[in-house]
Structures are given as C-alpha cells and as structure tokens.
Design a protein that fits this description.
This is Regulator of G protein signaling 10. By secondary structure, the protein is mainly α. It contains 11 helices and no strands. The model is unreliable at 1-18 and 31-62 (pLDDT under 50).
C-alpha cells in the first residue's frame, strides 16, 4: 500500500469536492468525443476519454472490435468503446480506480500550461495517491513524492506509478475481462451481425463495386 512521507497540501484538501471533480472531468472528457490514444509511455498520450455509462450499442463498434480488444490491453485502450466496456467491467470488480488513474495520467502528460499541470498533479494525488484518497490505487516501490515535486510538476512525474497500474491491469483484471459475460456478449453480437443477411448483402455489394 502506498505510503507518502509528507502531509497533504492543505490548499488542495481544503476543498472536499476535489476528488469528485477529477473523476467527473475524466467522465466529461470521455463523453466529448473519445479519440484514440497510445499505450503507456508513448509520445501521443491520451487525446480524449470515452464515457463508460454502458449506454452505447454494438452498432457503434467497428467490425471485429472484440478481436482487437483480445489481442492486447494496449489495443483495448486505443479503442474508446473498449475503454468504456473495460471500465464497466472494472466497476463491477470495485477496481475502476485503476483505469481512471491511468487515464488521468495520460491526460496529465498532455497538459502544457504550468498552472493547469500543478492543479492536475494535486488532484491526482488527492484522488488516487494520498492516504485519504477517495479512489486510492495500490502501488508499491514508487519514486518518493514530495511537496516540491507537486509544486514543480513535469509530464512524466507519475510515469512509474502509471506503468505499475498498467501492468496490474494487464496481468490481472484484463485476463478476467476477456472471460467475462460482458466481453463474450459483445463478441457474440458481432458474430451475429456478420452473419445477418443485411451484412452479407452489403459485403457482396462492396465486393462487386471493388471488382468493377
């Protein structure tokens, strides 16, 4: 369990809504457009985050999206619909904070304004890393964090912690997700859609156009 050696910044903890505000911002970014992002440590980082309210239907998925999700966690996190379903699964396992932390770190790495970076660094600490965090993540052996680092943040200050959480998801919850009813249901839906007469007719029509 994470242990930090300095007291939380009172300017951040003075407001009890800080943790909720960060999680809400993650969900709002998710709802906006949900573009893709790269795997941890990549140069692009997270562009947008897709919401996970479970309201999306299979019609919004690209063909064989579940095959992409099953190929690697990195590919799943590149697909907004995959992130939505993975968050839905983690919520049922009471470990949604892991992917929320990973997404928040990706968003943090794209922040360029120094003031915004300071605010986001403190929010990430309060929400996920402090001993009183509302959505505390379980990380070990992390680089020592102190108040000076929070006041002078840099884009990769949470990278080691983010990588730990990524590996935790990769070797634990991700494998269970691929065996879950939620994932298997989407896979069956895709297969049924491909076998439908409309889908076969569209495929034949596309083939004729291509060959003309």
């Amino acid at each position: 369990m994470l242990r930090l050696v300095f007291p939380p910044d009172p300017r951040v903890l003075r407001s009890p809504v800080a943790p909720a505000r960060l999680v809400q911002r993650v969900s709002e970014k998710t709802a906006e457009c949900g573009a893709a992002w790269t795997s941890p440590g990549g140069p692009q980082g997270m562009a947008h985050i897709h919401d996970s309210d479970g309201s999306s239907s299979s019609s919004h998925q690209t063909p064989k999206s579940t095959a992409k999700w099953a190929s690697s966690l990195e590919n799943l996190l590149e697909d907004p619909e995959g992130v939505k379903r993975f968050r839905e699964f983690l919520k049922k396992e009471f470990s949604e904070e892991n992917v929320l932390f990973w997404l928040a770190c990706e968003d943090f790495k794209k922040t360029q304004d120094k003031k915004q970076m300071q605010e986001k660094a403190k929010e990430i600490y309060v929400t996920f890393l402090s001993s009183k965090a509302s959505s505390q993540v379980n990380v070990e052996g992390q680089s020592r964090l102190n108040e000076k680092i929070l006041e002078e943040p840099h884009p990769l200050m949470f990278q080691k912690l983010q990588d730990q959480i990524f590996n935790l998801m990769k070797y634990d919850s991700y494998s269970r997700f691929l065996k879950s009813d939620l994932f298997l249901k989407h896979k069956r839906t895709e297969e049924e859609d491909e076998e439908s007469p409309d889908a076969q007719t569209a495929a034949k029509r596309a083939s004729r156009i291509y060959n003309t």
